[in-house]
Design goal:
Layout (H helix, E strand, L loop, with lengths): L1 H25 L11 E4 L5 E4 L4 E7 L8 E5 L8 H9 L5 H10 L5 H17 L3 H37 L9 E4 L1 H36 E3 L5 E3 L11
Antiparallel strand pairs: 1-2, 1-5, 2-3, 3-4, 6-7
Helix pairs in contact: 1-4, 1-6, 3-5, 4-5, 5-6
GO cellular component, one term: growing cell tip
InterPro entries: pH-response_reg_palI/RIM9, SUR7/Rim9-like_fungi
Pfam family, one: SUR7
């Protein structure tokens, strides 16, 4: 029974860790400028960080031309934005109409980041209940969260993969930009993996606890201190 408790605690910890990782992805640029899902280093030494609810153009030289007075310009926090249009204006990256429309639509799917974060935290709270009912609900919630996180993970890699490919493969010598995946997308990947194992571990711990509890109810002690098993009425011998 002690081993079951340890396994349950491991699953609970994995749920908490996945919630924290999803929170990091959620608060990416423009909430926290340094955290990004995709980072683009521009030729003029500035950079663009794309996040869940928008983007930031970082280390932009002010109108005075003073190199020491740099600042970040960020969009407002909203669902959906147009990263392809920005890159076309900034470094003349060539996007076709299909790629532009695809990236605009896929940015709206990133609203699942905070939703998955909230569900993972709910699963963690349910797992803290440590009862059979709480463990079962926690495993079901974790499985649902994993499915949604997997969807948004695939979407993010497709979306930012299209953007990254166009930026790095451009033939424009004047562009000189380089795109790379940011920490936000890797925390999302790690959260997806942890949620998968957490849902399985919590479910197995729940089943094990239920089996032990059922065995404890069936087994009783006789007068001599030995363990006996209750027989069902159809298994009992008839006395004459």
């Amino acid at each position: 029974m002690a081993a079951t408790g340890i396994i349950h605690h491991i699953g609970t910890f994995l749920l908490f860790a996945s919630a924290i990782l999803l929170l990091i992805t959620t608060i990416s640029s423009p909430v926290v400028n340094d955290i990004s899902l995709l980072k683009v280093d521009l030729q003029n030494s500035s950079s663009i960080t794309f996040g869940t609810f928008g983007y930031c153009v970082r280390d932009v030289v002010s109108d005075s031309g003073n190199e020491n007075s740099k600042s970040d310009y960020c969009t407002g926090k909203h669902i959906g934005y147009n990263p392809a249009g920005l890159m076309e204006n900034v470094d003349n990256t060539d996007f076709n109409t299909a790629s532009t429309e695809t990236t605009k639509v896929l940015t709206r799917v990133m609203v699942l980041h905070p939703i998955c974060c909230g569900l993972a935290f709910i699963a963690f709270l349910l797992a803290l209940g440590a009862g059979i009912c709480g463990g079962l609900l926690a495993s079901l919630t974790a499985a649902l969260t994993w499915a949604l996180t997997l969807v948004v993970l695939v979407t993010d890699f497709v979306f930012f993969g299209i953007l990254k490919s166009h930026i790095n493969d451009t033939d424009d010598d004047q562009a000189g930009s380089h795109a790379s995946f940011g920490i936000g997308i890797w925390t999302l990947l790690a959260a997806t993996i942890l949620l998968f194992f957490a849902s399985i571990i919590v479910f197995l711990a729940c089943c094990s606890a239920r089996r032990h509890k059922k065995s404890a109810r069936v087994s009783t002690k006789n007068d001599y201190g030995t363990t006996t098993t209750k027989r069902h009425f159809w298994q009992r011998r008839t006395r004459y």
